[in-house]
Structure formats: C-alpha cells, structure tokens
Amino acid sequence: MSRLDVKESDELLNLLCLEQKEFIEFYVKRGKKTAFANVMAADKGIVLPDSATVEEMERLIDEWVLEDYIDN
Q1: pLDDT in the model for residue 15
Q2: Which residue, 5, 23, 48, 57, has fewest beta-carbon neighbours within 10 Å?
Q3: pLDDT digit string (tens) for 11-21?
Q4: Would residue 70 count as lying in a domain?
Q5: C-alpha separations of 9 from 12, 16, 27, 41 in Å
Q6: Which pLDDT band, with edges at 50, 70 and 90, does 8 fall under?
Q7: How many CB atoms lie within 10 A of CB 57?
Q8: Is residue 48 part of a domain?
Q9: Domain that residue 14 falls in
C-alpha cells in the first residue's frame, strides 16, 4: 500500500461529511496523544496497559497532560 501525498489526502478529506472529518481528526490526534503518553510513561517507569483509556493514561502520568501535538 502506498502513501497518499498531501494533495491526494486533501482531495479525499474534502469528500467526507463533517462527522467523518471530525472522527478522523479525533482519532489521529488521540493516536498521537497515546503514543506521546506511552513514551512519557516509559521514561517515568510507568507501565501502561494496552487497554488503558486516554483518561487513565493521564491519571497515571498526572505530571504531564498533553494539550495538543503538532508533528512537523
């Protein structure tokens, strides 16, 4: 499977309804937050169960709360 370039991705995104766009934006942001939380937890020595929700992860690593994530 090949990756889409930015133009192709934007064209496909424009075909979606608002509800679909919101779902994708939430899912992608949540996925990045989860990845970040796992890195922070590993650094702090906390093991996060695979089934942990974002809220549970935030509680376990309560010194750090990721508000937003921007990837280059």
Answers
A1: 94
A2: 5
A3: 988 999 999 98
A4: no
A5: 5, 11, 16, 32
A6: confident
A7: 22
A8: yes
A9: 6-60
